[in-house]
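Section 5.1 Outputs to date
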Amino acid sequence: MFGLSLEHLLVLLVAALFILGPERLPESARWLAQTVRKIRGFAAGAQDQLTSEFGPEFQQLRKPLQDLQALRTFDPKTALGRYLLDDAFTDPPAAAATAGPAATPLAVPSGTPLAPGERPPIDPDAT
């Protein structure tokens, strides 16, 4: 919650107890909770209103924002795979590891190691 740890919240609670006193602290906490609920209600109402007024165009407006959100979880390996494989590699590495080797398009066939002097097989599609 806002990047605050448990220790920070405890310090804020103690400070609020000293500033407001034990008589006014419960009333202040109740007021804060009601205000947060109202703000969440206003935000949900505004989003519903935008969706109803814009219709399908609202999703087009949200697309760039979702792309920016995807940059927060940017993984260079996934981005390179998407660029090179034309979106064929869209699974993040953690999901690809749990999906199994058959689900990953970059799976390397396991076999016996090459003997000294033996040439590796050539993939004509890769060249």
